[in-house]
Amino acid sequence: MSEATQQEATPSLANKAGAALVGSLVGAVLVLGATLSVRGMVSGAADRMKHPEAVKKELAVAVADDTEAPYCTPAFKTVLQRVLNACGLVGSESRRGCQPADVKTFASISDEDFNALFTPLKDRGAVLMFDDGKDDLDPDGRKLLEEKWLDRKGARYFFVVARASKKGNVDMNRALSHRRANSVMLDLANAFHDPDLDKQVGLLWLGNEFAQLGKDWCEWPTSREKKSCSPEAINRSAFVSWVDCRL
Amino acid sequence: MAANRAKWAGGLALAGALLGLVFAAYSTSDYAAHLDRQIHAIHCSFIPGAPVDSGEGNACKTALFSPYSALFRQSFWGGVPISLFALGSFGFFAGFALFVLLGGARTPKRALQFMGTIGLTPLLASLVMFTISAVQLHAFCKVCIGIYFSSGLLAAAGLMAWLALRDDASQASPRPPGSALMLGGWLAALGAASVLPALVYVSTLPDYRPMMSSCGKLAVATEAHGALVKLPTSSPVQAVTLFEDPLCPTCKAFHERMVVEGVFERLDVTLAMFPLDNECNWMLDRTLHPGACTLSKAVLCGKERARAVLEWSYAEQETLRDIAKTNPKALRERISAKWGADVNACIDEKDTTVRLNRHLHFAADNHVPVSTPQMFLGDKRLCDEDTDLGLKYTLAQLAPQVLP
Fold first, then answer.
1. pLDDT at B300 over 70
2. Looking at the domain A74-243, which fold is it?
3. pLDDT tens digits for B343-369?
4. Buried-most residue among A111, A151, B303, B363 (CB within 10 A)?
């Protein structure tokens, strides 16, 4: 090899080695840097997973539940809860329904206040009317009852509050209102064969002793819209409604 | 001329590799963020560093949560994201490109041959992923397109390397050939660089097993009226209850994931409709998916075709959602045209409303989260995080019999 050729070759070899060195170093730095950042990302995620409080507070997800309507005031829910406990919907399987004495005891409020609790249910409920001294629902009554039952939406409990008019004695009216409540229950059972019926329907019968309805209840949806309505007639009834409250 | 070509090849490859490295880093970062089992927004832009995108229609989200975004999902929670391999290989190619760029005319022939051949592999991988995006996902993630483009630059650089070699024939001072051993060395270095981030990723992953049983149970295992829907599958071996919304994109992705993974046919599916639409669902103060109540009723009315109606809703989801938002009547016409007047009439029947209401009460009785999809293996609820990235790993742990 001549001297001139040697002089040419030396710098090119040096260039080549330098390029290889620089390339290798840069490549190694990039790969190692990327690897270390991957390690950091995974470790960071693991830390967040172990201490998720701050993140989870922001991302609280709603839980499926029954409807909670604005009329579910504490007073309303207190009565509702007592009805459920005392009338056999919650806990005990041995009894169904509440009679006037029970209601007077557990409601612990006046007749007017008791009825006022149900006022917000005007759009949700209906008054099923009966003939004088009778406890069987007529076809319009059955139709309205079934419509109301099917319009459950997010409610859990269906209330049936049966009454009797002032005509007749207390014992007879108590028994009559009881039969009216049972008549509603029986119709629901026959129409829908719903296995959950007992867990959903709260029966109250008030006879003529407690919380009689005033004439203003004639303005509510009734099963006899086309017939005249009097204070006596509106109490020969069963008020029915789904109740959109959580307990 | 040949020296210039080699330098151009090196420069182009360096640009492609660095760009690919950046896009792969974003993709990896988005994937790794989800390892904390929380919900995160995802980068989806051609511009590196652009803000994250939390939209439902984010194509990068579709790609990330698809079964194709990671390997070894059965062995590691979330699997090993393929972007990790891209990250390592682009790092290697950046170094190699710099070597070619600085070497110029003295860059050995073997190096140019290596660049011309192996430099094509990222493009081949990109072509495979592009095909999957087009055929399976029907969505093109911008970060992925960034990687495809970077791979294209590397391939173009490889082509230029071959041109530089061709020009060498007419050069007075020939390019040094380089040792054949170097090819093996570079190949080994590329392999090591490609797997190193993945190995470190896997070794750093936390233990997810204790988290899997922490998301609750079905308190009421069956619906008393028999209102829920049984979906037919070919070889059911594990009872599951699914809560789904026909217009929920996550439900669609979840369903498709289970079908693609071969899991769905091995499930004995009880379906509870849970439309996130306050037309029928009282648990929402606003409608998230208008039309979901109508389509849920259509699924119920489909009877023995319920699965087909549900899968049609998923397949046509975007169109159906758009129609339902603006013209509910047109949605009914679509249902009638596809499934017949009987199904359409059934949607209006009171019994159907009552039945759907029972599905919603089943959700309320169980106090499940107001979100979809939800999956219960027997009575055990799979955490949301385990129904997407961690699905296969979770199933491998809790119900291996459903994996093919």
1. yes
2. 60s Ribosomal Protein L30; Chain: A; (3.30.1330)
3. 999 999 999 999 999 999 999 999 999
4. B363
> Which residue segment(s) compose the domain that B175 sits in?
2-204
Q: What is residue B343's predicted lDDT score, i.e. its pLDDT?
A: 97
| Residues B200 and B307 grouped into a single domain | no
Determine, for residues A49 and B369 on separate chains, whether the beta-carbon distance falls below 8 Å.
no
Question: Helices B109-118 and B83-103 sit at what angle, rounded to 10 degrees?
Answer: 150
DSSP for B290-338 reads: TTHHHHHHHHHHTGGGHHHHHHHHHHTHHHHHHHHHH-HHHHHHHHHHH
From the CA of B45, how many Å to the nearest CA of chain A?
21
Read off the pTM: 0.81
pLDDT at A10 over 50: no
Q: Say if B102 falls within a structural domain.
A: yes
Q: Which one of B153, B187, B204 terminates a domain?
A: B204
Nearest residue in chain A measured CA to CA from B350: A150
Q: Is the confidence at residue B67, as pLDDT, over 90?
A: no
Dihedral sign from CA coordinates of A163, A164, A165, A170:
negative
Q: Which residues of A touch B201 (CB under 8 A)?
A: 38-39, 42
The answer to whether A61 touches B370, Cβ cutoff 8 Å, is yes
Chain A contact present for B91, CB below 8 A: yes
As for how many domains chain B has, the answer is 2
Same structural domain, B130 and B39: yes
The verdict on a CB contact (< 8 Å) between A154 and B282 is yes
Contacts of B114 in chain A (CB under 8 A): none
Express as a percent the part of chain A with pLDDT over 90. 52
Q: Tokens standing for B34?
A: 């989800």
Q: Are A223 and A127 in contact (CB under 8 A)?
A: yes
Residues forming a β-bridge with B376: B241, B381
pLDDT in tens, B366-403: 999 999 999 999 999 999 889 888 999 999 999 999 99
Q: Which residues contact B140 (CB under 8 A, 6 or more apart)?
A: B59, B130, B133, B134
The alpha-carbon gap from A182 to the nearest alpha carbon of chain B, in Å, equals 23
Using a CB–CB cutoff of 8 Å, tell me whether B185 touches chain A: no
Q: Establish if B312 belongs to a structural domain.
A: yes
**A51 to chain B: nearest residue by CA?**
B36
* CATH number of the domain bearing residue B28: 1.20.1440
The shortest CB-CB distance from A34 to any of B21, B106, B369 is to B21
| Judgement on whether residues B128 and B193 belong to the same structural domain of the protein | yes
Does the structure show a pLDDT above 80 at B183?
Answer: yes
My answer on whether B269 and B379 are in the same domain is: yes
Least confident of A97-106, B68-77, B157-166, B279-288: A97-106
